[in-house]
Amino acid sequence: MESDDGEVVSNKQVIFKDYVPGILQESDMYITTATIKLKVPPDTKGVLVKNLYLSCDPYMRIRMRKVQGSYFARSCQESLLPITGRGVAKVVDSSHPDFKNDDLVWGMTGWEEYSLITATETLFKIHDRDVPPSCYLGILGMPGLTAYGGFYEICSPKKGEFVFVSAASGAVGHLVGQFAKLLGCYVVGSAGSKDKVDLLKNKFGFDDAFNYKEEPDLDAALKRYFPEGIDIYFENVGGKTLDAVLLNMRVHGRISVCGMISQYNLEQPEGVHNLMQLVVKRIRMEGFMVHDYYHLYSKYLEMVLPLMKEGKIVHLEHAAQGLESAPSALVGLFTGCNIGKQVIAVAYE
Amino acid sequence: MESDDGEVVSNKQVIFKDYVPGILQESDMYITTATIKLKVPPDTKGVLVKNLYLSCDPYMRIRMRKVQGSYFARSCQESLLPITGRGVAKVVDSSHPDFKNDDLVWGMTGWEEYSLITATETLFKIHDRDVPPSCYLGILGMPGLTAYGGFYEICSPKKGEFVFVSAASGAVGHLVGQFAKLLGCYVVGSAGSKDKVDLLKNKFGFDDAFNYKEEPDLDAALKRYFPEGIDIYFENVGGKTLDAVLLNMRVHGRISVCGMISQYNLEQPEGVHNLMQLVVKRIRMEGFMVHDYYHLYSKYLEMVLPLMKEGKIVHLEHAAQGLESAPSALVGLFTGCNIGKQVIAVAYE
Q1: Shortest CA distance from B249: residue in chain A
Q2: pTM for this one?
Q3: Closest approach of B229 to chain A, Cα-based (Å)
Q4: Which range is least confidently modeled, A249-253, B38-42, B75-79, B309-313?
Q5: Nearest-Cα residue of chain A relative to residue B254
Q6: Which residues from B are below 8 Å from A270, CB to CB?
Q7: Is the confidence at residue A68, as pLDDT, over 70?
């Protein structure tokens, strides 16, 4: 199997079959085994990496549907290449001056054992090896920066304000809640199980939390938890929750729209009816993407790494084992299986 | 009919009967005649005014329905007092040091011939008598300041940007379009008739305009008028138009939400389905009310009065004659009868 150009090894991959308009299922993906040469091809500038951890993120579901004006136009799925997503990986071979063998990196990679990455501008080298590398898929990576940018930059938060976070036990939500508590806000989260609600209150320090599945009237629930109304809503779910929140916002409230996970498995998104509240309460509702905040990444790390090491902020990870478990891990994001950041552990070194 | 305290005169009034959940009709109002003493009562600080012009504004429709969290909690309609709204009036008697007989004022008054106004903090004295006084219900009053605050403060407009205005021939819309043109934007408006579309293009200087009633596919229409997308949307209508606009916004676009007139006569507001575009395009959507911009009023007048006198900005008024015509004028706002600012001429001096 050896050649002058590097060893050829088998390379297990997760392939996505075709766009899914409705509910994403494990059967929309399959596992296959290809081969790969562990060497960057001649005349190519890039790195050959061994993937250690892969990330399951809600935005990946959007790539899996045909949507107008989407940022997912360049979809690898169309040519049956492995799913692309963020991962932590070890450099096995490099023709790029910024990366050398055995470097740890995080960034866009493939759902497979080994990947050739030529878009190296999306890779970050991991310098701090005191923390588990998979953290770079959560608190120290895209979800962390998402929580940071979406909360501090969009919400203009002030001490004492009333903050509501939906999908609060998710990769982004559980960090937003903790950032808001550190700032001195009053924070309530919603999640989909008793265990998650307990975690929010007992582990992540939310002032209160509730299980939205047990609330037949979300408007009434929000009135119970926010008798004085909501200043800041960190939107992760969309649909009925957004409609109920709009009725409970305070004057000059802010809604940071990070995602709408309740809608991604629907053929048609639900209608939101209470937008006139934007006028009545003079609300600012703003969508964002983490791409706009990468210039803040080193500033964010400077803030969060000490907090993390001092135990002032807690990070929760949900790890599935092996590439074979990747399809069910991704599907599970949309049925609430994960608590905290969902990753797939592919290899340990 | 005379007394020491002032003449008692008959006072025609327009009374609103009861909250209307669906379509507002003339029969929801009636005309009656009361009497009034043309003197501010003893121990009362206020002004007694003769109403000259009354204003028909879309927000008045919202006061006419029971809505949660509305800014219309203190509704005069409940006790069969005349409808309240903005007007231009002449002071007939005053016990307030800031106002004297024969002053012209604009602000909150009643739909009647004479009104006793004690909330004088909502009154502005009219100093510039070079312009028709009814302008203070349009370009020089609330709609003008609404257009100014909603466009300049919310939209952060820049020269060369693509601007779409709905209800563009309305009291606010036709001013927003002209402000945007003065700044060097490319401006397209939508309206509900050929005459209005012609006015937008030929009188108000919009780059283009279309009749939304002749566009079965609003998304396709917007793609035709904005092949490169929309940077700024000045939202006056809501519903299907908003949904179509969301699909055509550019990255980092702004939506200034002034009102949603297409929804005010519906028992349930329509659902808006495309809010995920806020994330995909990182759009800021912000509601506002003119109340938040009164501190800018004198600055606004300094800007707009010269433009108006030089003919660089055109103001259009639609005047109904007499209090008897008030109910149909108000109802007509929601069926598109008016072009420009709808007022009711009650008296000429």
Answers
A1: A69
A2: 0.92
A3: 10
A4: B75-79
A5: A286
A6: 271, 273
A7: no
Indicate yes or no: CB of B284 within 8 angstroms of CB of A282.
no
**Measured distance CA(A269)–CA(A271) in Å, rounded:** 7
Evaluate if residue A256 carries a pLDDT over 70: yes
pLDDT in tens, A82-127: 899 999 999 999 999 999 999 999 999 999 999 999 999 989 999 9
DSSP state of A141: S
- In the three-class reduction of DSSP (H, G, I as helix; E, B as strand; rest coil), residue B60 is classed as helix
Distance (Å) from the C-alpha of residue B270 to the closest C-alpha of chain A?
6
- DSSP structure class, residue A203: T
Using CA coordinates, name the residue in chain A closest to B258.
Answer: A279
List domains and CATH numbers for chain B: 8-137+316-345 (3.90.180.10), 142-291 (3.40.50.720)
Distance from B265 to chain A by nearest Cα, in Å? 13
Determine contact, residues A191/A168, Cβ cutoff 8 Å: yes
Q: What is the pLDDT of residue A62?
A: 84
ipTM: 0.92
- What are the DSSP calls for A163-188, one per residue? EEESSTTBTTHHHHHHHHHHTT-EEE
How many Å apart are CA A175 and CA A144, to the nearest integer?
A: 7
A65 φ, ψ (degrees, to nearest 5):
-130, 155
d(CA A318, CA A173) in angstroms, rounded, equals 14
